[in-house]
Amino acid sequence: MQLWHQPLTENAMRRGLRVSLGASFGFVFCKFFELDFGVFFVVTPILLLGAVAKINANIVRQSLAAAVVSGLEVGLLAAIFSSHPLLMTMLAFLLFVYKFACMSGGSLFLFGSTGVLNLSIMLHFASYSSADLNGMIAVNIWANVVALLIALALVHVIPDRPVSPKPAAAPAAPVPKPGHRRRHEALLGATVATLSFVVFQVFNLNDSLSAQATTLLLLFPLHWNGALSYARKRVMGVTLGVTFGVASQLLLYNWSDQLLLVSLLLWIGLLMFSYVHAKEGGVPGLGFGGLTTLGILFGQYLSPNQDIIFSALYRVSSIVVAVIITLFVCYLVHRILNRFEATRFGY
Known about the structure:
The structure is a single chain. By secondary structure, the protein is an all-alpha fold. The protein has one domain (10-160, 182-343). It is built from twelve helices and no strands. Helix 5 runs antiparallel to helix 8. The radius of gyration is 20 Å and the shape is globular. It comes from Agarivorans gilvus. The chain crosses the membrane at residues 75-96, 108-127, 139-158, 186-203, 209-228, 235-253, 259-276, 283-302, 308-334.
């Protein structure tokens, strides 16, 4: 498995610096104001600055729309259908279908992918009586606004250097995906995402956010081969991210309440994984897996009264199990959908 297949250009280094600083600023913001669901404030800048090639008005609209629409969906489902789990699950499946359809189309990929994560995670936590539904929705929207402001500021302060264009042949016109493939991708993603939601509900897994996010991130390639390829790199990235988290906890010891020290260590870890992410060409792989792992560990689980070492070891085991089960289910759904001409992936 080849990881280092892209030269590290000056612009790639600038992009990695933007990712590490953006997530660190989000972390400092949520911890300074003592906001819940810090994972939203750390992971959202990573998605915006690490998974999007260029931030423009379209990206801003998609990010804000995903947060607002997901908030409305979760609010309505949890408020009206919380006492009817079967009906709520069926409606969640339909919502996942249209979000994965947006991802399959390409132009609305950020709206669909962010919406899938927001819907699944918030809907899961909203099912618990102790959850503050309105507060969670408000924090998610606020995190997206803060992440956008941070991203826009960093793009302005640390812009890409202009690159002299190289003579090249005219790019070929993009070929639209055939309808049967788009249906395959939408149904595959929606089915596995819904099953993931059901499993986490049935087994009451309210402390496995990283595993739940992993089951969704594996679906972002939108097909079985892509999920299998990304899964191997994801496990490697998670393992390295958890190792850094454990090392940080040991180094901090009783100083985990010192925001400056924690933020500095987080920034160092994010910078290292941003370097790997840049070497991989900016596509989801080992570096991106490490980035999101650090975002979840530091944003959600690191606090003066909580031991990140136990949390980190639990994250590794839960993620490995989640990857294995998700790949197995993804393969089964892929084979079933390929049996029908209307939902076949390819010919």
